[in-house]
Amino acid sequence: MTRTCPTPHHEDDVVLIGHGAGGRLTAELLDTLVLPAFNRASGPLEDAALLPGYRELVISTDSFVVSPLFFPGGDIGSLAVHGTVNDLAMRGARPLALSVSLIVEEGLPLAELRSVLGSLGKAAQAVRVPVITGDTKVVGRGAADKLFINTTGIGQRHGSLHPSAALARPGDAVLLSGPIGLHGTTVLSTREGLGFEADIASDTRPLHRLVGALAPLGEHVHTLRDPTRGGLAAALGEIARDSSVAVEIDEHTLPVPEAVAAACDLLGLDPLIVANEGCLVAFIAPSAADDALAAMRSVPEGRDAVRIGDVLPDGPAGRVTLRTLVGARRVVDMPLGEQLPRIC
Amino acid sequence: MTRTCPTPHHEDDVVLIGHGAGGRLTAELLDTLVLPAFNRASGPLEDAALLPGYRELVISTDSFVVSPLFFPGGDIGSLAVHGTVNDLAMRGARPLALSVSLIVEEGLPLAELRSVLGSLGKAAQAVRVPVITGDTKVVGRGAADKLFINTTGIGQRHGSLHPSAALARPGDAVLLSGPIGLHGTTVLSTREGLGFEADIASDTRPLHRLVGALAPLGEHVHTLRDPTRGGLAAALGEIARDSSVAVEIDEHTLPVPEAVAAACDLLGLDPLIVANEGCLVAFIAPSAADDALAAMRSVPEGRDAVRIGDVLPDGPAGRVTLRTLVGARRVVDMPLGEQLPRIC
Q1: Which one of A319, B87, B100, B101 counts the least CB within 10 Å of its CB?
Q2: What CATH code would you report for A173-331?
Q3: Facing residues of B155 across strands?
Q4: Do B101 and A17 touch (CB under 8 A)?
């Protein structure tokens, strides 16, 4: 019942893993089924929504189903804090409060639950965001896989920042705050025991300070997005679509760590579609691009920030292209479905 | 690792179904494991929390794991709206906005998902609360049971109302807005095919109007609570504990529908511990008790409101007693664990 499937195929009329991948299938599920139920037009989908009547407050919700619960660099607890804090940050907001809701499978060792919650609490404290309310549900063995965590965050916007996925403009510089591909390859390698997890770790970390560093640039900051599910390809594709612009990035500028490249080679994955949990892309007015890069590099989490491309002066709305190392151009497609399930 | 288990029993060091039941095991899990992780003292646990810096705004989160997804009177979609709207209402707030986060099992028929979301959207519209943000995750077959829904709500308090589980006072009248036991027995009967579901339906409904009707009574409204998981016994037990008062209710005033009584008889359940999703208990200053009862009866969802008891002038803090039909008194214990799993 999706757009790509105009004639009903009854065997397909079920939810597929790919519907949760953050790619085209997810977008179709949202457009055809979720948003109509809520009387929402399929306009730009932001990482966080404005609270009616309180224009400085934004809200974001995320359910975390990552498997395994623990991986190099983090666990589902820290990830649940960072993921929601970062979604708030992408709307130019600092976190005010978090809610935490647990769905626990009967039989989960209390030691694992304690460890995850300790990590969650520590991550929240590091960001100075209080956990103000919560909920705990337990389901029988086999009715869930160990532990799922929902975090919902309320954030307060920096007065000067109003970034939106719909505000990228021709000429904008496209900046990336750090290396890509670490989170997805780390989780996958840990889950499947591929061995790369000895050399890499998830980049899971909060990005609110990095956004704070950009706040003085105000209106010059057009768009912020953290390329999580679907990776950089999905993030750029959504921005190009929602802003009706064409984006071009340079392959030689892309910071792909060696171990990520090796893992992707082995797995047949494109690093562009691998999830990240600790970097962001910023679309910045050209006059402020150098200042923005300097501001990003002024905080540890943006130390390796680079300019990876531009919004083209003209070009088909919604198109993302990559200038390859040998100078050719290829179109970067939105990933269709799930190549990396349960990464976050 | 719970309070009742001072010597470690390694075979018990796992999460039990009862940890999610809203009874004593849940309280112990919260006190010993969840709240310490978040640096929270184990003070009164309210249905919704105040947002720091915005004292008129309250937040509540709930994950719904009810099985089956559809039952007489509602489904997981409408329940997810009502549950969170009601938690906000119990802090004297009307709902401003909802977030909705889905965890879907691969293979769920799209028709079922569409039906649930349609019901969710309709319930939200009936309450005039916009769904402003969301998230969708898909997990593989067997990693979840069909569909879990988290809703998180932001509410704005009626200026006059500041109810709290810690504010019940000696002499307060204890009012109940309607019959008890319908939701839990309906879901259980549907799940197990017991046949009672032909005669009963869940009471799932929003209670914000009922609370609105009480708003003119202002400070006389000491405590509001909807007796969901753990039923009336858990709600009264928590209030008695958090307010350090003794509560006594009269069995002959308790509205237990005949079909509920029959189902409870068969199942060996006490209607006092069965979950409700459409009634509330209100602790009201004695001088305003009659006005409060009249106000509750003025809206359809409070038509059958009754006074079921009082806060005793003295008596052991935290104790709830029932005066039985034959005039004896028995202590109403907080339910220990789970007698009715996955009711909400």
Answers
A1: A319
A2: 3.90.650.10
A3: B58, B95
A4: no
Indicate the residue of B50, B59, B133 with minimum beta-carbon distance to A49: B133
Judge: A20–B51 Cβ closer than 8 Å, yes or no.
Answer: no
Question: What average pLDDT does the structure give for chain A?
Answer: 92
| Per-residue model confidence as pLDDT tens digits over B210-265 | 999 999 999 999 999 999 999 999 999 999 999 999 999 999 999 999 999 999 99
Q: In angstroms, rounded to a whole number, what is the distance separating the alpha carbons of residues A119 and A76?
A: 9
CA distance A58 to chain B (A): 10
CA atoms of B133 and A302, how far apart (whole Å): 28
CB atoms B16 and A50 under 8 Å: no
CATH of domain A47-157: 3.30.1330.10
Domain boundaries along the sequence of chain A: 1-43, 47-157, 173-331
Distance from the Cα of A195 to chain B's closest Cα (Å) equals: 24
What's the mean pLDDT in A276-282? Answer: 97
Please, are residues B26 and B20 in contact by the beta-carbon 8 Å criterion? yes
Write the residue in A21, A30, A134 that is nearest to B61 by C-beta: A134
Q: How far apart are CA B79 and CA A178, in angstroms?
A: 43
**pLDDT at residue number A6:** 38
Cα angle at A154 between A72 and A135, to 5 degrees?
70
Indicate the length of chain A as a whole number: 344
Dihedrals phi, psi of B225, to nearest 5 degrees: -155, 140
DSSP structural state of residue B76: H
Hunting for tokens 């309709």 — which residue is that? B122
Q: Judging by DSSP bridges, how do beta strands A320-323 and A247-250 pair with one another?
A: parallel
Question: Can you give the pLDDT at residue A3?
Answer: 37
Q: Give A-chain residues touching B67 at CB under 8 angstroms.
A: 143
DSSP B195: S
Residue A62 has its nearest CB partner, among B17, B52, B135, at: B135
The DSSP string of A219-253 is GGEEEEE---TTHHHHHHHHHHHHHT--EEEEGGG
**Residue B87 tokens, joined:** 């938690």
Angstrom CA distances, A32 to A38, B102, B139, stand at 11, 16, 20
- With bands split at pLDDT 50, 70 and 90, how would you rate the model's confidence at B181? very high
In degrees to the nearest 10, what's the CA dihedral of A193, A196, A200, A202? -40
Tokens (6 digits) for A307:
């300019």
Contact by Cβ (8 Å): B305, B175 = yes
pLDDT in tens, A199-254: 899 999 999 999 999 999 999 999 999 999 999 999 999 999 999 999 999 999 99
A100 neighbourhood in chain B, CB within 8 Å: 38, 61
Same fold, B46-157 and B173-331: no
What is the spatial distance between Cα B33 and Cα A115, in angstroms, rounded to a whole number? 10
Which value does ipTM take for this structure? Answer: 0.93
Q: What are phi and psi of B94, to 5 degrees?
A: -95, 150
Helices marked H in chain B: 24-29, 35-37, 76-89, 110-126, 182-192, 208-214, 231-243, 258-267, 289-297
Binned at pLDDT 50, 70 and 90, residue B18 comes out as confident
Q: The sheet that has A93-105: what strands, in order across it?
A: A49-51, A54-64, A147-157, A93-105, A131-139
- Fold of the B46-157 domain: 60s Ribosomal Protein L30; Chain: A; (3.30.1330)
DSSP letter for each residue of A63-80: EE--SSSEETTEEHHHHH
* Sequence-separated contacts (24+) of B264-271 with Cβ below 8 Å: B264/B181, B264/B185, B266/B194, B267/B185, B267/B188, B267/B194, B269/B184, B269/B185, B269/B339, B269/B340, B270/B231, B270/B233, B271/B180, B271/B181, B271/B231, B271/B232
Q: Which string of b and e fits A279-301 if b means at least 16 CB within 10 Å?
A: bbbbbbbeebbeebbebbeebeb
